[in-house]
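Running this now, will post back.
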Amino acid sequence: MKQNFDFNLAAIFIKVVEHKSITKAAEKLGMPKATVSRKL
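Update: finished.
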């Protein structure tokens, strides 16, 4: 079964890695930290 790659999820993951923090990544993305955490 083929699955589509979600570039939005990849962008969230990359921001978390760059900032080494879900909270800081969420602030930069303009998203609630709970949303960022859930999407990981």
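Residues 7-19 form the longest helix (13 residues). More later if anyone needs it.
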